[in-house]
């Protein structure tokens, strides 16, 4: 089942882009330097948050994580007021109800190699419409492993080539997401999602020590409902009654099949969590 999440709905949804204080309504005019370290070596971090009819969701939590990721990359702390000004600018005249904001923060101008950047950091904020994700999807296990001990483990870095490769693998198999195992052989995460398994009345998700990103939606579910954090083998995950994914753009999404295996549960527990997340997030735009 191909996941249509985050598909551009057409020319009327062309991104609005703000770069270091300058707003561009024509994406073709939005430019950064060819020696920007984010472009040259992926020396940058980013956040992507959903926009609802009421506005951008969980901004504080996303900016908290942006700052943590920047610190892990050795980048200066981004100025929160400036980032908020960029978000306001790209959403000021929005013509969509459902969308996303993407915040990209890089080392700025730098050498054509892995030495430290020597320019001022670059801050890019962009907004665009997205389609509503489907209620369910199919997933496939990646033929590659996540390194749960790597320098970028748990960092939302712009070095996203592995995720691009993983999502293309899923698309080629008519699936909406690829799930990575870690070097220990345990379930880690999707290319842009966290994984949850339901066993009877127990909901389980891999711990951060398994290598996944601490997703904002994951964190909220852990606060709003009982969830056990423990390692899961692939075999154990496939024996679950239900499996679902979480992310900032998918919210809570049921998995119908994993590597072709159909789960025996009816999705009732997942449906209750979908309703819980919708109610709690709808009542508080910045929980």
From TrEMBL:
<dbReference type="GO" id="GO:0046394">
    <property type="term" value="P:carboxylic acid biosynthetic process"/>
</dbReference>
<keyword id="KW-0663">Pyridoxal phosphate</keyword>
<keyword id="KW-0808">Transferase</keyword>
<dbReference type="Pfam" id="PF01063">
    <property type="entry name" value="Aminotran_4"/>
</dbReference>
<keyword id="KW-0032">Aminotransferase</keyword>
<dbReference type="InterPro" id="IPR043132">
    <property type="entry name" value="BCAT-like_C"/>
</dbReference>
<dbReference type="InterPro" id="IPR043131">
    <property type="entry name" value="BCAT-like_N"/>
</dbReference>
<protein>
    <submittedName>
        <fullName>Branched-chain amino acid aminotransferase</fullName>
        <ecNumber>2.6.1.42</ecNumber>
    </submittedName>
</protein>
<dbReference type="GO" id="GO:0004084">
    <property type="term" value="F:branched-chain-amino-acid transaminase activity"/>
</dbReference>
<dbReference type="InterPro" id="IPR001544">
    <property type="entry name" value="Aminotrans_IV"/>
</dbReference>
<dbReference type="InterPro" id="IPR036038">
    <property type="entry name" value="Aminotransferase-like"/>
</dbReference>
<dbReference type="InterPro" id="IPR050571">
    <property type="entry name" value="Class-IV_PLP-Dep_Aminotrnsfr"/>
</dbReference>
<dbReference type="InterPro" id="IPR018300">
    <property type="entry name" value="Aminotrans_IV_CS"/>
</dbReference>
<comment type="similarity">
    <text>Belongs to the class-IV pyridoxal-phosphate-dependent aminotransferase family.</text>
</comment>
<dbReference type="GO" id="GO:0008652">
    <property type="term" value="P:amino acid biosynthetic process"/>
</dbReference>
<dbReference type="GO" id="GO:0005829">
    <property type="term" value="C:cytosol"/>
</dbReference>
